[in-house]
Design goal:
219 residues; 22% strand
Length: 219
C-alpha cells in the first residue's frame, strides 16, 4: 500500500531585520528579499545607506536554513526548493503579507518599495502577483519574473508600479539573451521596466541603491 501524503499547518518563528524606525512619520518602507544562501542580518547591511528620518528597510528571511558547505560552518537560507513548491510559495506569500501588514500598522503613511535580489526576485514577483494594494516600486536585481508565472496577474497588480531591472554587466548568472527574452515577455504584458546596469558581478551596488532611493522619492 502506498504511503499517504498529508499536510499540517503549524506555527513557527519567522525572522526579519529592520534598519531605521517605523512610525507615523515614515514615508518610505523598503521590503528587501535576499538571494539563495544568504541571511537577512547580513543582507540588510547593504541597505543601511537608504535609511533616514523618513525611510526604513525590512529584510525578511527565508524559512529554510542549511549549511552552505558540508555539515557545519556558514549557514544560508532559501525561500523555496522544487520539493512541495506550491506549499512553500503559499507559506512565504503569507509570511510576506504578514510582514507588510505588521509594518504598515506602525507606519501607516508609508509608500511601499519592494526589492528582490536573485532568488528573492522570483520570490517578490510571486508575492506581489496577488497584491491588491499599491506598490510604489518593484526592483528586480539580478533576477526576473519566474517563467511559470502568469503575466496577466503581474500586470493587474503592478499597473501603477515603477518596475526596474538592475544587473551587473559582469554577472555570470545574468545572460544578456535571457534579459532580452524577459523584457519582451514583460513588455508584452503592458509593463515597461527601467533598466539600470553597473560594472560588477552578482552583487549589490551602493551607488545604484542611492539612485533607486532618489527615484522612489517623488510622488
Amino acid at each position: 500500500m502506498a504511503a499517504l501524503h498529508r499536510t499540517l499547518q503549524v506555527p513557527r518563528t519567522a525572522h526579519l531585520y529592520q534598519a531605521g524606525t517605523l512610525s507615523a512619520d515614515t514615508q518610505h518602507l523598503w521590503i528587501v528579499c535576499h538571494g539563495y544562501g544568504q541571511l537577512a542580518r547580513y543582507f540588510i547591511r547593504h541597505f543601511e545607506g537608504l535609511v533616514d528620518a523618513h525611510t526604513a528597510v525590512l529584510a525578511p528571511e527565508g524559512h529554510s536554513r542549511f549549511y552552505l558547505e558540508g555539515f557545519s560552518g556558514r549557514v544560508g537560507a532559501t525561500w523555496m526548493t522544487k520539493e512541495e513548491r506550491l506549499h512553500e510559495i503559499a507559506d512565504y506569500v503569507a509570511y510576506l503579507n504578514r510582514v507588510r501588514e505588521t509594518a504598515l500598522q506602525e507606519a501607516p503613511h508609508a509608500h511601499l518599495h519592494v526589492l528582490g535580489f536573485s532568488q528573492g526576485a522570483a520570490t517578490v514577483c510571486r508575492w506581489l502577483a496577488q497584491a491588491h494594494w499599491p506598490i510604489a516600486d518593484l526592483v528586480l536585481w539580478a533576477g526576473v519574473f519566474p517563467e511559470d508565472m502568469e503575466m496577466r496577474s503581474a500586470r493587474q497588480a503592478l499597473s501603477q508600479t515603477r518596475l526596474t531591472y538592475v544587473y551587473g554587466l559582469q554577472d555570470p548568472f545574468v545572460a544578456e539573451d535571457k534579459v532580452q527574452e524577459q523584457l519582451a515577455r514583460v513588455r508584452s504584458a503592458g509593463l515597461e521596466p527601467k533598466i539600470i546596469t553597473f560594472a560588477g558581478k552578482h552583487e549589490l551596488n551602493p551607488a545604484v541603491l542611492q539612485q533607486l532611493k532618489a527615484q522612489g522619492k517623488p510622488f
